Amino acid sequence: MKEERYTPNQAAISRLVGEIKQAEVKPLILIHGGGSYGHPIAKDHQIKGGYREPSQLQGFAKTHQAMVTLNGMVLEALLQEDIPSMSLPPSAFLTTDRGRIRFLELRPILKLLELGVLPVLYGDAVLDSTLGFTILSGDQLAAHLAIKLNAGRIIMGIDVDGIYSRNPKTDPSAQLIPHLTLHELREVLKHLQEETVEEADVTGSMAGKIQELIPALKRGAQALIVNAEKPGNIYKALKREQVLGTTLQAV
Questions:
Q1: Measured distance CA(163)–CA(70) in Å, rounded
Q2: Which of 172, 204, 237, 247 has the highest count of CB atoms within 10 angstroms of its CB?
Q3: Strand, helix or coil for residue 99
Q4: Which fold has domain 1-136?
């Protein structure tokens, strides 16, 4: 759980890295979230809302360092599987304005892909030209890169089987929706946006994740949302095999 601080699921990290290794898909960019590392600290110090007082500066720095620590675990697991990988801290190559990416240096990512090295990125505490600093979600980063790199697919691994008609964690009648076009997606968002503030974290609710994907979908990318907690799902998604989840595309 994100609320239980510094509780990495090492078994899940190792399994997912194993699925990436087995799939042997290139080119590929890996982006992970903050989990129990970045989220609690960012929330405590209200980093997403930007700089308001000097006491937040320590929280800003600690949020980034927590993500570096978690990223180190992911990178170590990749290297143990002999997957050439390199971490790229988003705070070092991009800035935002009012929480939206305004500058991103693509050249390091492109060079790693050219060399056959897996770029490993993550949600991060970043500098913001208006707010001073903020939280950049991995969801926004993934969609932005998909547009800039003309990516054909975005695979999003979450803790439920995909997009539901309602929140499946609170509503037993919720139904999994296997496929959504942009038009259908906007209708579903009306229901998802009814989630309470308590159900959302510092990087947004499911509705927020979907909204981040919309610009990439408009540019022709396809998104697949699957349950990363179920063994084999990420492998199947990477290999384009049939897998339980929700496919999002323009039409």
A1: 27
A2: 237
A3: coil
A4: Carbamate kinase (3.40.1160)
Residue closest to 51 by CA, chosen among 158, 157, 166, 135: 135
Report whether 220 contacts 214 (CB < 8 A).
no
**42: how many CB neighbours lie within 10 A of its CB?**
27
Pairwise CA distance, residues 111 & 245, whole Å? 32
The pLDDT of residue 73 is above 60: yes
Superfamily name and number for 151-251: Acetylglutamate kinase-like (3.40.1160.10)
Mean pLDDT for 136-161 is: 96
Q: What is the pLDDT of residues 13-57, one digit of tens each?
A: 999 999 999 999 999 999 999 888 988 999 999 999 999 999 999
The HSE-up count of residue 101 (CA atoms within 13 Å, CB side) is: 24
Query: Which of 73, 16, 58, 49 has the alpha carbon at shortest distance from 229?
Result: 16
pTM: 0.91
Q: Would you kindly state where each structural domain of the chain is located, as residue ranges?
A: 1-136, 151-251
Q: Is 106 left (phi over 0), alpha (psi -120 to 50) or beta?
A: alpha
